[in-house]
Amino acid sequence: MNKQRQLAAILFADIAGYTSLMQKDESSATQILRRFQNEMEEKVENNGGQIINFYGDGALCIFQNTLEAINCAMVLQSNFEQKPIVPVRIGLHSGTVVFENGKVYGDSVNLTSRIESMGIPGAILFSKKIRDDLKNQPKLKMVELGSFEFKNVEEPIEIFAIANVGFKVPNRSEMKGKLKDGTLNRSIAVLPFSNMSGNPNEEYFSDGITEEIIHSLAQLKDLKVAGRTSAFSFKGKDVDLREVGQKLNVRTVLEGSFRKAGNRIRITAQLIKVADGFHLWSERYDRELTDVFEVQDEIAATIAEKLKVTLFENPIESSQPQTQNIEAYQLYLKGRYFKGKRVEGYPKAVEYFSKVIDLDPRYSKAYSGLAVVYFYMSAYGMIRPKEGYPKAKELALKSIEIDPDNAEAYLMLGGIAFCYDWNFDNTRKYLKKAMSLNPGELEFYKGSTMIELTIGDFDKAIENSKKAIELEPINPDAWVEMPYCYIHTGQLDQALKFIDEILELDSNDIEAIRLKGIVFEKKGDIKKAITYYQKAFELSNGEGFAPFYLAIALSKTGQTDFARNLLNGMLEQAKLTYVPSLFIAYIYAALGEMDHAFERFEKAFEDKDGMLVYYYVEPAFEIFQSDARFEEKVKNLIFRK
Fold first, then answer.
1. Which of 146, 316, 560, 584 is deepest in the core (most CB within 10 A)?
2. Quick one: 191 and 302 in the same domain?
3. Which of 292, 300, 116 is nearest to 218 (CA)?
4. Nearest Cα to Cα of residue 158 among 128, 178, 137
5. pLDDT tens digits, residue range 370-426?
6. Are 35 and 163 in the same domain?
């Protein structure tokens, strides 16, 4: 008999725990199996499908299209959840099936069985192929469960689940199917170490210890490490570790405490399996403060061994501390602590990083940390771009001269090449280098998303944004580029979906609220848009882009007083300190004074304002795009395909 090939939506279903049930109560097990087979035969046929084979307590079915398959799966699970309950797992995938000599096989069939094996009773799991076929079905609620590496499957597979009311969605810790050995065990979140010193001013040190351990573990191949921001969202909270595992998609958690007294430190740490709370390892370290680097390496190496992420014959290499000066190290941690506070912390960060460099001129991370601060102070209009960006570049280059493997420094060079030098080739080169050195850094994927969007590669932008979200699933900042992508392509409902995801994580996220205003303005509801711009303006205390969006929207409705007052305030402020010309140009444009707007726009070019590169991405620029002078000005700047 010749082989026959057919494209199909494939459904696998089986009864969870059937063998165990058969051993305990053969009569009940037989009754459950009979009901399972009867339901399958009736519902599959009613939904246009075909049962290819029953495999004891399981069934393989195919359908002509994906919607029929998912509808059948939902009907089946709804029925199986009614008494007497049948504990059924269902998995779906689409692809080619091969018929030969009465047998059915193929890679797609094998993959479907692996997806089904990840499920729990009452759940419907499926591949990205199925999700893509169903994305225009508004009644279906689907959630992503993450990527998994299956046995005998080369690439990781993204798994999704139906999340409509009545259907179960498994936690990642519950998913124990046909995976490559150790796939799920090789994941960890490092929670912020508790500061037990009794001195809140020592907080920077306990945070710094945590960050250094996260960084060390992130260097290990095949170990998934939860991002810093997501892990730190649990700081100071009494949390259930199972919740941590579920939210961060990890199987193990490291938690601990730090105590400093004089020149002595005590660090305690314990590695815990989140599924059952079992302690895989715990240790206490009492050392001199000068031994802190050794302790950090020792903790990381022990975890690596416990999780078996390296071969015993090729153990983890201890990283060499960048300084032997403990005072410089403490000041560096303070600088990084204030850098993390963004705008309000940048002046203090400059102070501390500069002191570090005075104490130890060969401390590479201090130079790159200071480069980051100058870069963002330039980007946020706190200092003149022609002052800040070149200073950041000089510091980044010095950092690399000392340590050629400093990923943070390459990230800064990429950002400067993009925002200041307007050199896309160098941008990509530096970002690629940074990613190769530290593939777990969120900022790389966020920056790459906006760069690809700016040059017009929407698919790559989405891909990078997805990676950012996967790295930091509960960090609102990881999600924010995705709405930009969909706003840029006019897919407003999709943008709104991701904005609402951000607001679920943080209902007062200023960027998400502003983006929601943009979506409603583009939908033609200017009144609703103004309410969101107003809220963003109030939450931001008038900082950032919120004032300009509010001024532009109000002016469109004839309410120009806000824009006029904002303009007068900025013009007065500009007599005393630097105010980005681009900001003033927005307000002139909102008031319809396009000649004045263009003068300020030209001045922004002279200043090398870093925001100009986002001319076709940031929606605020749309106010200029009806005037040919602005288009002419940017035509040689933007890297469009």
1. 584
2. yes
3. 300
4. 128
5. 999 999 899 888 899 999 999 999 999 999 999 999 999 999 999 999 999 988 889
6. yes
